[in-house]
Amino acid sequence: MAFLTINLRNNDRLTSWKIEGAMEKSKVLVVGGSGYIGRRVVKASLAEGHETYVLQRPEIGLDIDKLQMLLSFKKQGAHLVEASFSDHRSLVDAVKLADVVICAMSGVHFRSHNLLLQLKLVDAIKDAGNVKRFLPSEFGTDPARMKNAMEPGRVSFDEKMTVRKAIEDANIPFTYISANCFAGYFAGNLSQMGTLLPPKDKVLIYGDGNVKVVYMDEDDIATYTIKTIDDPRTLNKTVYLRSPENILTQRELIDMWEKLIQRKLNKSFLSKQELLSSMEGLDYASQVGVGHYYHIFYEGCLTNFEIGDEGVEGSELYPEVTYTRMNEYLKLYL
Question: Start and end of every NmrA-like domain (predicted)?
Answer without folding.
Answer: 24-330
